[in-house]
Amino acid sequence: MQLARGFYIVYSHRFACFIIPNRIINIVPVEHALISLIIIFKSYQIMNQTFDLHIANETIASDAQQLGVTVDDLKRICVQVSAHIVKYPKVCLQLTYHITLPNQMLADKLDWPTWQPERVGFADYLWEETCLECFITGNTINSNTVTNDTTSYVEINANPDGRYALYQFESYRNPATLPPSPLYQADGHTRASIEWINKPKPHSTSANTHLLRAPDPLKPNSYKYELSFNVSLTQLSDTHLKYAINNTIIEQIHPCVILWLDKTPLYYATSHASPPDFHNRQYWSRFEL
């Protein structure tokens, strides 16, 4: 029985087994299952925040004309991002991107690379292709002390084929060099990374993986895409339910997406600057636990 995304219980007349992807986390007598369920579920996943993203309207008419579709077709593209704080087996931010295209014409135009295990790793300029992004900012930690510096922020990029990048900015688009400065782990030498969650097995098909195009069974004429990945976090011991990516406490978050259809980029975010600018934190959301 699936209790939540990636969280299952299997039981017999004597025992209950709790499972997360690729891991059995507990086996208990059936009479102890309820209390174990409460304890495990609270420790496994404790936050869920969902973001509905909207297309930038600045050039939507010309984009539709260039693609040979209607403005209404583009407005019917649904993009949603869910954010979870997961505590087991390690503390991380889990981001899941849901994209639904309303018809096959748009699906045929979408640049959505197939999963390639050999391509998993750090890569720059991912925004020049379909790109799943997220910006994070908040107070910073300096020598174990929380400061009021909220000018720095982190940018996360991910491509459906497995490539990713994490960048560190000191202030708005600073440093201005391209590619931006990578985000490093605490040792100062190792680049920060993501962990893909629902990557397909070798030789998988669109019938058994969300990473490839598949018709949505609830909407036969639409096509659904889904990707999930984890970003490692630190839980701060001296504050209640505060989490940090490296030295940046997560207080504001801005999931966004660039979909490339043919050679036309479409920009999606919860709200937009004019012209679209994902780095403008005036349009970012509060991170709510």
Overview of this protein structure:
The chain is mainly beta and 289 residues long. It has one domain: Immunoglobulin-like (Sandwich). It is built from four helices and 22 strands. Strands 5, 6, 7, 8, 9, 12, 13, 14, 15, 16, 20, 21 and 22 form a 13-stranded mixed sheet that branches. Strand 12 and strand 13 form a beta hairpin. It is globular and about 55 Å long.
Brief synopsis:
With 289 residues, this protein is mostly beta strands.
Describe the secondary-structure layout.
Layout: E1 2-4, E2 7-11, E3 15-20, E4 23-29, H1 33-44, E5 45-55, H2 60-67, H3 71-75, E6 78-86, E7 92-101, H4 104-109, E8 121-122, E9 131-137, E10 141-142, E11 145-146, E12 153-158, E13 163-169, E14 195-196, E15 214-216, E16 219-232, E17 234-235, E18 243-245, E19 248-249, E20 252-261, E21 264-269, E22 285-286
Average pLDDT over all residues: 83
Number of strands: 22
CATH topology: Immunoglobulin-like
- Count helical runs: 4
β-sheet strand percentage: 35-45%
Q: Which residue ranges are poorly predicted, with pLDDT under 50 across at least 5 consecutive positions?
A: 21-25, 202-211
Order of helices and strands: EEEEHEHHEEHEEEEEEEEEEEEEEE
**Share of helix among residues?**
10-25%
Number of domains: 1
Terminal-residue CA separation: 27 Å
User: Do you know the CATH architecture?
Assistant: Sandwich
Give the C-level CATH assignment. Mainly Beta
Shape by Cα distribution:
globular
Which structural class matches the secondary elements? mainly beta
The radius of gyration computed from the alpha-carbon positions, rounded to a whole number of angstroms, is 20 Å
